[in-house]
Structures are given as C-alpha cells and as structure tokens.
Amino acid sequence: MSNGAEPPLLLTCGEPAGIGGEIAAKAWEALRGELAFALIGDADWAAGFGAPVARIGAPEAASAAMAEALPVLHRPFARPPAPGRPDAANAPAVIAAIETAVALVREGRGAGVVTLPISKKALRDGAGFAHPGHTEFLAALTGAARPVMMLAGPSMRVVPTTIHVALSAVPALLSEGLIVETGRILAADLTRFFGLARPRIAVTGLNPHAGEGGVMGREEIEIVAPAVATLRGEGIDAFGPVPGDAAFTPAARSGWDAALCMYHDQALIPLKALDFDTAVNVTLGLPIVRTSPDHGTAFDIAGAGRADPGSLIAALRTARAMAARLG
User: Fold this and answer.
1) What single string gives the DSSP state of each residue in 76-118?
2) pTM above 0.90, yes or no
3) In a shared domain, residues 139 and 194
4) Least CB-packed of 14, 43, 84, 215 within 10 Å?
C-alpha cells in the first residue's frame, strides 16, 4: 500500500442513489492493502454500505486511514439518498465532488481522479448540468481541447471516434481531421500513460467490409484511408481501414495495441462482450489521470447488495499505474 508519500487517488461519489457507494465499499475491502484512495461524498451515506468509514479533513490523511477504514472527504448531500431513486437536490454535491477532485489533483494533492457513475438527467434537473457526460465536464474543468474516451480491458483497448450521437449522424460527423486528431491523442497517451513506445493502432472502416472498394460506401476511400496515411506520415503506426467485423478476432487483436473505431457500438460491443466486468473507461487528452468503471448507475440493483466492484477495482488499479508513469 501507499507509504503516505504518494498522493491518494480521489474517488468521486457519483449518483448517490446508484450502486456507487456499494462498489466503493467493496473496492476498499479488496484494495486496502494495495493502494490508497479517498472517497469524496457524504460520510453518513458512505457508512451505509458495510465498510468502516474514516472522515478525513485532507487527502493527505487517506493513506494512514486506508488500512482500517474507507477514507471519506466529507461533503454532505442535501437529502439522504434512496436506492434507485435519484434526487435532483443532491446534484450540486455530486458536481462539487468532481470539481474538488480535479482541483486537488491539479494541486498535486491527488494522484488521479476516478469517477463513480453519474445520472446526467439528475444533474441536469438539479443543477442545470449542460455537459453530455463526465468526459466533457472534465475537459472543461482542465482546459483540455479534445478529450478522447478509451475503454480498456484485459482483451483490448478501443476508442470510438464519434461517441454519444445517433448512428444516423455518424457519417456526417466523420472527417479525416477528426480521425487524425483522435489518432494523435491516442498514440501520444498510450506512450505517456501505458509505456508503449510505438503503439500499433488498427483503424476500422465505417461500412460493412470496409466499403468493399466503394461498393458499400465511400467513407473508407475518401475519409478513413487518407487519415491513416496522414497518421503514418507522422510516424504513428496506424493501419486500415480494417473491416469492423474482422478487427476483433483473437488473431487480429494480437496485431494491434488499440483499435480506433468509427462509432460508439463498433468499439464497445466487442469490449463489453469480452471484458464487461473488468473494463475501464480512461479519458485521454487531459492533463490529469482520469478513469472510471465501464458501467452506469444500475438503479435496478441499487441497495440489493449485488453490485460487482470488478470494474471499479480495475479503474483504481489502472489510475494508479497511469499516475506512476507520470512520476
């Protein structure tokens, strides 16, 4: 475990009515002898999930507390949360937890930010939250020009070039410049955070069979292939367009370190099929480390004691490893 010299990871409370508190308590039980983290949220709420809780006044106290109790930087909620029933009154506290975590990490008092799942509707209803999600909010807080969402699991790393948009909107949004920009950030941060000197990036096509020479669409010819050529011209080991239905076979995966995909489900379906319980959401392109579990609030099982902490445990371990690479 951390010897006290290293800053702890900072875990934000997420949606209090979801499974975040439960998996935080389970992650503490699993990791208390391995690494240090502090949960930012309501200590009374955190104490309701079976783990002993230590209220700490500063993140520097997390390491000493970790062995015996879950360290909590107490930030009270407006109302006691009810499992499965998000309350918009608690939205300001959820947002403040994210802001606090980012500020502490930027001050050098936290190693990285790990976020528990939020309810964007509750944040919008209760605090006018205008961002599509965590990723865009973190970019605004840190001044990052272009955040990139990468999902990483034991079997693969994937990046969707377009994210939370309707499938019908994807062709119009794709451009050579967008693919090139995403590929640059992906390559740079695979080196910065994951130690890959020259990462191999498979770039998928948009259409079936990667367009089959223009028979089923020209995006591969007019957009994807030129983007791959540009990336290769900059010394990035990118190749493609690779047909989306062939990119994720075991043999194909052995030939790349990350897949740069054209849309959300093209990237996330294979990842979740193989690594659902252990996948991690990593935000690239930020000046800080940020990871999160690759799942949502799970209101349907909140309060039932059945939530699997595997993805959060992986997110905490990944964040610690990324922070260590930054020195």
Assistant:
1) --SS--BTTB--GGGHHHHHHHHHHHHHHHHTTS-SEEEE---
2) yes
3) no
4) 215
